[in-house]
């Protein structure tokens, strides 16, 4: 079974997707982390974030992997755990540019579909329901105000121990800018699939969002 959870930056996709996967004993696939890892590779190899050929060569050379370590999903490039490093503001500022590259998207989508074809998955991102898994049994599109998403991101930075030199207003501006870039890119833009269920998480707790999605999954399972 395939569950697709889409939405803009910091709408709560990864948080709820992890919980749902755990509750259902499904595999969680964080597609955003794969694009962040590609962006990290570009920086490490001192490449331009628009250098598609160079970034693809780096991906082939280094190998991006998602692994479960002590019940938590970790992102590895080769043998190096970069789970923390890909969440910094610098990577966040450039991931839209890298993820808009046609070759990089093609490579990541191929990997994502391979994973989803082997097991029950909960996959989150921006184009899962529209491009990666268009036939997913359940499609969810999460939204929230830019201000509430900025507050969540600030909280996430603190919890991860990531030092940030930005104010809440600056983070909110960055989120709004990323929304624009993601929804206006030519290839697989951020948009709600026609058959997706939209959930506004602005005033909802994590538990409420999880329960709302689980309700939709159980409805779908009854039909299968």
From TrEMBL:
Enzyme class, broadest EC rank: transferase
Amino-acid positions noted as binding ATP in the UniProt annotation, renumbered to this chain: 7-15
Intracellular or extracellular location(s): Cytoplasm
Q: Which HAMAP family match?
A: Cytidyl_kinase_type1 (MF_00238)
Q: Which EC numbers characterise this protein's activity in its record?
A: 2.7.4.25
**InterPro entries with a match to the protein in the record:** Cytidylate_kin, Cytidylate_kinase_dom, P-loop_NTPase
What does the record give as the reaction this protein catalyses?
dCMP + ATP = dCDP + ADP; CMP + ATP = CDP + ADP
Which terms in the GO cellular component ontology are assigned? cytosol
Q: Which Pfam families match?
A: Cytidylate_kin
Domain of life the protein comes from: Bacteria
Q: What is its main location?
A: cytoplasm
- State the name under which the record lists this protein: Cytidylate kinase
UniProt-listed PANTHER family: CYTIDYLATE KINASE (PTHR21299:SF2), CYTIDYLATE KINASE/PANTOATE-BETA-ALANINE LIGASE (PTHR21299)
Biological processes, Gene Ontology terms: nucleobase-containing small molecule interconversion; pyrimidine nucleotide metabolic process
Q: Which family does the UniProt entry place this protein in?
A: Belongs to the cytidylate kinase family. Type 1 subfamily.
Q: Name one GO molecular function term.
A: ATP binding
| Protein's organism | Lactobacillus helsingborgensis
Residue ranges of every copy of the Cytidylate kinase domain listed in the record: 3-218
Keyword field: ATP-binding, Cytoplasm, Kinase, Nucleotide-binding, Transferase
Q: Which SUPFAM superfamilies match?
A: P-loop containing nucleoside triphosphate hydrolases (SSF52540)
């Amino acid at each position: 079974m395939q569950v697709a959870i889409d939405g803009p930056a910091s709408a709560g996709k990864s948080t709820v997707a992890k919980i749902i996967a755990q509750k259902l004993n499904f595999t969680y696939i964080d597609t955003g982390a794969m694009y962040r890892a590609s962006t990290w590779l570009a920086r490490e190899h001192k490449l331009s974030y628009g250098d598609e050929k160079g970034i693809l060569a780096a991906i082939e050379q280094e190998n991006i992997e998602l692994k479960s370590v002590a019940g938590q999903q970790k992102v590895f490039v080769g043998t190096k755990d970069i789970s923390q490093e890909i969440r910094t503001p610098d990577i966040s500022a450039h991931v839209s540019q890298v993820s808009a590259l046609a070759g990089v998207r093609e490579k990541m989508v191929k990997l994502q579909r391979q994973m989803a074809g082997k097991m029950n998955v909960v996959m989150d991102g921006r184009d899962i329901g529209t491009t990666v898994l268009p036939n997913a049994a359940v499609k969810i599109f999460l939204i929230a105000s830019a201000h509430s998403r900025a507050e969540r991101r600030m909280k996430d930075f603190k919890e991860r121990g990531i030092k940030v030199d930005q104010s809440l207003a600056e983070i909110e501006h960055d989120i709004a800018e990323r929304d624009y870039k993601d929804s206006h890119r030519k290839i697989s833009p951020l948009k709600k699939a026609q058959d997706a269920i939209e959930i506004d998480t602005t005033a909802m707790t994590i538990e409420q969002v999880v329960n709302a999605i689980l309700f939709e999954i159980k409805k779908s399972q009854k039909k299968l």
